[in-house]
Amino acid sequence: MSEFMFKELPGGGRYLVSPQLSICSGVSHGFFTREGGVSKGKFESLNFRFTGGDDQAALAENYRIAAEALGGSYNQIVRTCQMHTDRIEVIDSLEGRFRQVGAPDGCDAVITNVPGVVLAGFYADCQLILLYDEHNRAIAAVHAGWRGVANRILAKTVEKMGKIYGTQPKNIIAAVSPSICRRCFETDDDVKEILFEIYEDQVPDYFYREGSKWHIDLKMLTYSSFMRLGVQPYNIDISNFCPCCGEEELFWSHRRQGQERGVHCGMIMLKERD
Ligand SMILES: [Zn+2]
């Protein structure tokens, strides 16, 4: 677990960065909070969610603000189509237009080795995981809620980066967004059974029962997935923040608010070599 650091957007408003990724000169990234955007009402203010009824011009401005904070541009944003799948899209060119990939079937991870492409994924309780292979200059954005933890999308993304870019887990630097904590992630037997089957050897450390409900530590399951893959412990940053029990001014939470909310975005971009 790590204390992520706050940074200030040029126009005001805080966002979060991983200490470990921040010291890498070849990449820029950010995990955005509610602050610093132009959306109003329940979407106030840095909302990235198209399906909730927010104003389209405001959404475009929010994306621009975020991309420019990374030193990138709105027209190079490639965003996921998150549906809890294990599908991964490979981005191999700069197209110069704001685009979504993977619709309509969904794609929950995107990878690229093209400098300037701004990979964008989303979180609000779910984890958004950003990866950087410093050795082969490749990046990824991976969305993983409990279904993504169950379908092993993180491992599949790392495997795919290995096949395409030659990525070795020992060279990966990883940052995991604010996401639901084990106190807030309360669930029934069915979800527990699915995750238990995959992570049985971690029990009882990451699973515990309270009354009729199970609590599962998804952050530690992700940490354990990284360990199994061979990612170095000192290269893994997992945010301590939980959107559900954290500051309401800073975070939206699916569990706390249902669909009446915006969504957070995390972005990562390879910088051009000097
Ligand atoms: Zn919590």
Task: Please give the structural blueprint.
Elements: E1 5-8, E2 14-17, H1 19-22, E3 27-32, H2 56-69, E4 77-79, E5 88-91, E6 99-100, E7 109-112, E8 118-123, E9 127-133, E10 138-144, H3 146-150, H4 153-165, E11 172-176, E12 186-187, H5 189-199, E13 207-210, E14 213-216, H6 218-229, E15 236-238, H7 254-257, E16 264-270
Parallel strand pairs: 4-6, 4-8, 5-7, 11-15
Antiparallel strand pairs: 1-2, 2-3, 3-16, 7-10, 8-16, 9-10, 9-11, 12-14, 13-14
Bound molecules: zinc ion.
Zinc ion binds near residues 180, 181, 184 and 242.
What features would you describe in this structure?
The chain has 274 residues and is α+β, with helices and mostly antiparallel strands. The protein has a single domain (5-180, 218-270), classed as CNF1/YfiH-like putative cysteine hydrolases (4-Layer Sandwich). It is 23% helix and 26% strand. Strands 1-2-3-16-8-4-6 form a 7-stranded mixed beta sheet. Strands 5-7-10-9-11-15 form a 6-stranded mixed beta sheet. The longest helix is centred in the first third of the chain and has 14 residues, at 56-69. It is globular, with a radius of gyration of 17 Å. The two termini are 33 Å apart.
